[in-house]
């Protein structure tokens, strides 16, 4: 990966699998030393044109990077915070999903040891990192569940996870919303992500004249590749500390 230029940029970052290394369970992810300071310096250097665009809730992001609060989109665009010290607001298309349906899905998934359902209010995630052999039967459960659900749901494939959410919003929509803010005007957008849930963001930044980069493997719409999250952190730190960013 080439170093970032000092031209006017807007940087958008996925978190799990991109900035942070994946863990067996979402609550076991570790925030490496130095990344909070790097993000803070990057935001200052960009004049605020930095946002986290994550599948996690914004509350989770704040806990991972405390005391730093950034502009952020959570749960694949279901919620957004336009100013670092501003409120978290749901996207108009987002809806809080029924607890009873989540419980029904969790009961079926629990028959496979190691697999579990994460309830993120606006989406549900079937995790099978600890039960890789169960992927095919879990996908069949998800397909059957969607077919019988009283509400419209779509599937997002992540790494060792299957996410169910209502249609109508995604990371591309979230990035477009940020680009409408004064802090992002006239800047070339850069987005870094690691899985299929990020591809809507890749497409959006490409359409706006920007660049997308994937982590771990090539992905549609990405023009470059990072081998793993530590390479992303090093790349960002080099930019944050270079020249007038030091």
Describe how the helices and strands are arranged.
Blueprint: E1 9-13, H1 35-45, E2 50-53, H2 58-64, E3 71-74, E4 79-81, E5 89-90, H3 99-109, E6 116-119, E7 124-127, H4 135-148, E8 154-158, E9 161-165, H5 171-179, E10 188-193, H6 199-207, E11 211-215, E12 224-226, H7 229-241
Parallel strand pairs: 1-2, 1-10, 2-3, 10-11, 11-12
Antiparallel strand pairs: 3-4, 4-5, 6-7, 7-9, 8-9
Judged by helices, strands and strand pairing, the structural class is alpha/beta
Distance between the termini: 21 Å
Instruction: Report the order of strands and helices.
Output: EHEHEEEHEEHEEHEHEEH
Shape: globular
Over the alpha carbons, how many angstroms does the gyration radius reach? 18 Å
Q: What topology, given as strand order, has the largest sheet? A: 5-4-3-2-1-10-11-12
- Report the mean per-residue pLDDT as an integer: 94
């Amino acid at each position: 990966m080439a170093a970032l230029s000092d031209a006017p940029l807007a940087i958008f970052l996925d978190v799990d699998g991109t900035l942070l290394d994946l863990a067996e369970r979402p609550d076991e992810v570790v925030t490496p030393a130095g990344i909070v300071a790097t993000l803070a310096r990057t935001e200052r250097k960009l004049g605020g044109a930095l946002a986290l665009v994550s599948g996690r809730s914004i509350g989770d992001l704040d806990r991972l990077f405390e005391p730093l609060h950034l502009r952020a989109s959570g749960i694949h665009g279901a919620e957004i915070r336009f100013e670092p010290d501003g409120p978290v607001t749901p996207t108009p298309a987002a809806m809080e999903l029924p607890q009873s349906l989540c419980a029904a899905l969790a009961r079926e998934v629990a028959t496979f040891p190691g697999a579990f359902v994460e309830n993120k209010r606006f989406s549900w995630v079937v995790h099978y990192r600890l039960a890789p052999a169960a992927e095919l039967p879990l996908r069949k459960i998800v397909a059957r569940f969607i077919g019988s659900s009283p509400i419209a749901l779509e599937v997002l494939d992540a790494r060792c996870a299957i996410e169910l959410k209502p249609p109508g919003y995604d990371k591309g929509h979230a990035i477009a919303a940020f680009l409408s803010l004064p802090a992002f005007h006239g800047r070339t957008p850069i987005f870094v992500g690691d899985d299929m849930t990020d591809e809507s963001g890749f497409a959006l930044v490409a359409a706006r004249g920007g660049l997308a980069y994937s982590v771990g493997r090539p992905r549609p719409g990405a023009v470059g590749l990072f081998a793993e999250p530590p390479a992303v952190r090093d790349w960002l730190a080099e930019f944050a500390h270079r020249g007038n960013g030091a």
